[in-house]
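seq:
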Amino acid sequence: MKRCIIGVCLTAAALPAERLETKAQVVTAWYQPTSYPAKKFDGSAMPEDIKVVHVWGGWFGNSFYKMLVQNSSLWIGGKGSTYTSPIKFDITGLPVNPDLVNLYLHALPSGSANPSQVSLWRINTTWLPSTTGWDKFPYVSYPGYYWPVSTVVNGWRWYTITGWYNDWKSGTHSDNGILIWPYNNDDKQRFDRFASSRVSSPTDATYFSTRPLLGINFIPTLWLQMPLPGNHQWLVTTEVGGYDCTGEYDQAHDGLNYFSIDFSWRNVADAGATVYTEASDIPVLAAEGGRVLAFLNDPNNGNYVVVTHGSTGFTTRYLHLKSIVVVSATTVVQGDTLGYMGNTGLSDGVHLHFGIRYNNSGAATVPELTKVLLNGWLLKNFQTECSVNEKGVPQDPPIRYYRSSSKAY
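struct:
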């Protein structure tokens, strides 16, 4: 396994899948939260809950725009006035004790020939986007982190925040996010502008957008492939943790099932590949090799399969299947067909509920699960994204697809 060098993978496809025995090498994995609409599916306001929206961000100034502005940019700098930008990520379910964490911001043209020196400050007080601004300034701790002036435009700049991140994950400090500050703001009209989480993004999540992201270095505990045919992109409709871009919450994806994802039957096929429909027999594939336990007609899960992955303590779960084509105690390898996507049990449409557990727990607090990679992506990175209508109401179905590099059928 070749280590992914910082910055290189940002324009490349997801990291290649590996076998279990290669897990003892450090990789860089990425977390880039999607942007949520300001409204829920019913037209009411989206709650200011970091668990729902995954990232907060915006900018405000001391003279104009004194309340937080949430648009496609994050501004710092100014002349005669000062602009600054707070940002906060939902880090529940992200890796614990990583070797390195970098915050990546994509620099955009600002109209200024004089960029500012960026400094980052850990925010020590709670804040909400709707009430934050210059007159309700988030309190920050001293000292901050400082970086030399960078002239990179239309490209990534990165800032190391490993210590803060580990303090947040351990509970040593509350995660209230970071204030991006123009350290050497002066009369030279220094400005920097970065893309925010609200910029548009490719619907094929194999390719990064310019939204803020975290690059996290760690040794994976388990490498998995997506449990659906390769040569296709597959729509995610419910995220790890149970939320989606309409603001709805599915409690079946929380507690012991926090690390579970719903994949829709909706797919985009590569040229020449089979285009699956809702009525198709869509193969559900083993995400990794192991031993099968098959269950039929469970009132909640429908027809489902559990695969135990050797003595690792990990199991993967495949729920609501139309039918099962393996029997208990069967040995499978990655990519083998376990059954076909269905709508059995407590299901509200044809989909695959895919879950991962360690020692029979899929809880967000299990450290081993935070370092599982699926097709090279963190489980937390499988998120939904909605388009919105002219009133800002999210539309169904979502639009964010993830490419499988598993076996093609």
